[in-house]
Amino acid sequence: MTTILIFLFTALAFLLNPSESRLSLDFYRQSCPQFSKIIQDTVTNKQITSPTTAAATLRLFLHDCLPNGCDASVLVSSTAFNRAERDHEINLSLPGDGFDVVVRAKTALELACPNTVSCADILAAATRDLVVMLGGPYYNVYLGRRDSRISKSSLIDGHLPKPAMPMSQIIEIFSSKGFTVEEMVALSGAHTIGFSHCKEFTSDIYNYSKSFQYDPQYNPRFAQGLQKACADYRNNPTLSVFNDIMTPNKFDNVYFQNLPKGLGLLKSDHGLFTDPRTRPFVEKFAADEKSFFQAFSQAMQKLSLVGVQTGRRGEIRHRCDQIN
User: Is the pTM higher than 0.85?
Assistant: First the structure.
């Protein structure tokens, strides 16, 4: 009787959760055996010529997966009849290098194995390989996603954290997707690479209050340096600063070590250290890079499975920026 119940429970779980059950590590072993090599070659060439690619792709992946699942919906361009996700205000600052590396990989894969590999799988695998290239941890990426047939800007609101959000609101966004506070802090460690535009934090470094020129949570010398770096931000909105000023091109735990020193760039960075719910994990990851890498790997693998579409629920786009 027990054996029968176990069999029935397993079968029911398979039926209720087809998304993950149809994914596998070697999904393209027969249909596109060159998949991994093409991804690796593409990201290597792109990262060498454009060193901001890794951070851009990681951010693109997070912005794709958090709102409605890892379905490449953020890659779709708007049309006269539809305002797509990438044109939502929060996505307008997504760097072009992330989109470009996916397009390059898709072009190469279409030549090698036409109409076989989804844009969602390309983005997930490219992100992992780029993180590893910068010294970050390797983690398994299950494959077999399909691309979404829908991309609407109106579906983004409330699903992505903003730099000035209170920590409670950021925690709630991740919690609604099934992530713990520790996993949220680990994913925030993505700020160990990449940059933020000055306009994201100018309210914190210029005329902060009647008492302070800048937010007192900043290290004074750092705040003064930011004021100089961003001085022309009104005339030049592309001005930006590295999220981790110490090791901006290396995936490590220095981002967390910066926060207690007042070297966090965004209000949300400061919040990770000042909020009693997140501070213990900041201190944990700052003290032990291995612990951060392990938590980040697990959180990224979990994120890569959120809202995945498989089989007939999605499609394999011919072009990543257009729904078939």
Answer: yes
